[in-house]
Specification:
This protein is α+β, with helices and mostly antiparallel strands. The protein has 15 helices and 19 strands. It has an 8-stranded mixed β-sheet, sandwiched between helices. The protein has a 6-stranded mixed β-sheet with strand order 12-11-13-10-9-16. Helix 2 packs antiparallel against helix 4 and helix 2 packs across helix 7. The longest helix is centred in the last third of the chain and has 27 residues. The chain starts with 21 loop residues before the first helix and ends with a helix. 34% of the residues are buried.
Length: 508
């Protein structure tokens, strides 16, 4: 007789509350800065907000706080306690963007030392709660905000955008902010951060921003002078917003019958070739932007990727597929906690091989048409560019993206890295074939950066020019006499130019 137990026998149960160190796990889920703020705005949308303001506050050169302010329904004291409870149970409607009950806490504590939430409904007074990371780790104690301050903060944002009700989420000790703001560091950070944040929100919330009754504003204000430095509205960035289709007969709506999820509609689009629109370029590299765009309740939760169906390749750069996730995806589709991706089961990939539109046109034919549109555009351009090895570490992401869009890549090859190293003073660059790297002489780095602080992807202009001159060296086993002479020529001229830059620095 078998001794196997098909059910594990138990003798009772025991309550095991989470250790306060659970906060470490909660705040270490890899939330990107833009992803975390998008998660907060999901809560604003669920609350029926019409206007959301992301307010960055500075005190002179120092950035002190970040606030997300909305004019939604707000919360009374009981609802706020639930919202601030880790995994707090609340009812989500069919159209809600919230899923797990952890977004507010994990998104905030991933990026700030403390998060304060102030809220007010039409029928309740302003109330507030605050999580401080260090305090939460010790005892799960959540601070009660002094009622007078809670109302004062509400009053500060009266008509901007709060009228009778709304919610304010305040981050303090934001880890992404510069530690020292002098020397223009704060301004440089803001000029990088704000457009990047605007692009992310414009993309992932584009269906909401396209409506007449929903707006997101990003603003920067000095807390002492009340001077507003920046104030602009986020624009909708529709990843399917091409002016003309890239291939006749598209878009087409396909149906994939996915086990566990039923009939799933997929709309296959072919983008206009060689587009310079932000709607096309803002997603990522040529490999990142192709593939599936999953939507849940009009919220984009994944932009690009083939989810195990196939490998990305440059010839499918124009193929984008909008997928409306079913309300109950079962085990076929699982949303990541950060709402920044979808895990699709093998059943989805299998269903795609059989997917057709109403006329019997197969999904595979759509992919062939998208690839043909790409190849035809290259053919019409009259240019047959040779495949290259891609640039790797040390090259700015924007430049890598452009290289991948403009040049076919040799598949399966390790990219060419570009990095600064200590070299003899009589050379500007060196080539390391074994490490597949272009080495730049550290001696001349200050001159090329003009006194600015260096970083992994600095000096994009110089690195791009060197990549264009030298990438072919790594695509051959050895260099001929003509190529060696060119290398020496480029070495001499670039070395002379770098030394001239250093001399000019000394004269200033």
């Amino acid at each position: 007789m078998s001794d196997w137990h098909f059910e594990v026998p138990t003798t009772g149960s025991k309550r095991l509350p989470p250790d306060p160190r659970f906060i470490d796990a909660l705040s270490s889920q890899g939330y990107g800065f833009e992803v975390a703020l998008a998660d907060l705005i999901d809560n604003s949308i669920d609350a029926g907000a019409k206007d959301v303001v992301i307010h960055v506050l500075r005190n002179g050169d120092e950035l002190v706080s970040l606030l997300v302010v909305d004019d939604g329904r707000g919360m009374d004291e009981e609802a706020l306690d639930v919202a601030m409870t880790v995994g707090g149970r609340r009812e989500y409607g069919e159209k809600s963007l919230g899923v797990f009950g952890t977004g507010l806490k994990s998104a905030s504590l991933s990026h700030a030392e403390s998060v304060t939430v102030i809220s007010k409904t039409k029928r309740s007074r302003a109330v507030g709660r605050r999580w401080v990371t260090a305090q939460a780790k010790e005892s799960f104690q959540c601070d009660i905000v002094e009622p007078g301050y809670a109302q004062d903060l509400m009053d500060r944002y009266h008509d901007r955008p709060i009228t009778w009700q709304g919610t304010i989420v305040r981050w303090d000790g934001v880890r992404d902010f510069p530690k020292h703001g002098g020397g223009g560091q704060t301004d440089r950070y803001l000029t990088r951060m704000i457009p990047k944040l605007g692009l992310h929100l414009g993309l992932y919330l584009h269906r909401f921003l396209a409506r007449d009754d929903f707006n997101i504003t990003i603003a920067v204000e000095d807390v002492q002078t009340r001077t507003v430095y920046m104030d602009f509205g986020v624009e909708s960035l529709d990843p399917f917003g091409y002016p003309v289709t890239g291939a006749p007969g598209f878009p087409r709506v396909f149906t994939a019958h996915v086990e566990g999820a039923g009939a799933v509609p997929l709309t296959g689009h072919v983008w206009t070739p060689k587009s310079n629109l932000d709607e096309y370029r803002a997603v990522g590299t040529v490999l990142d932007k192709q593939g599936f765009y999953f939507y849940r309740n009009d919220r984009l939760v994944q932009a690009g990727g083939w989810n195990g169906f196939r490998q990305p390749e440059p010839h499918l750069a124009l193929a984008r597929v909008a997928v409306e996730l079913p309300r109950d995806g079962g085990d076929a589709f699982r949303l990541t906690v950060k709402k920044a991706g979808v895990e699709a089961s093998p059943a989805f990939a299998a269903a795609l091989t059989e997917a057709t539109d109403a006329e019997g046109y197969a999904f595979k034919e759509y992919l062939d048409a998208a690839e043909a549109a790409y190849r035809e555009a290259r053919k019409r351009a009259g240019v047959d560019r040779r495949p290259v090895i891609a640039p790797g570490k040390g090259m700015a992401a924007e430049v890598k993206r452009t290289v991948e869009e403009e040049l076919p890549l040799i598949p399966g090859e390790e990219p060419v890295a570009l990095r600064w190293e200590k070299l003899d003073s009589d050379v500007f660059f060196a080539i390391d074939r074994e490490e597949r790297a272009i080495l730049l002489n550290k001696t001349y780095r200050p001159a090329l950066l003009g006194g600015r602080r260096g970083g992994l992807n600095d000096a994009p202009m110089v690195k791009s020019l060197l990549y264009l001159l030298l990438h072919q060296v790594f695509e051959k086993e050895y260099s001929g006499s003509r190529e060696k002479d060119n290398l020496q020529l480029w070495q001499s001229i670039l070395l002379s130019a770098a030394r001239t830059e250093l001399d000019r620095m000394d004269e200033q």
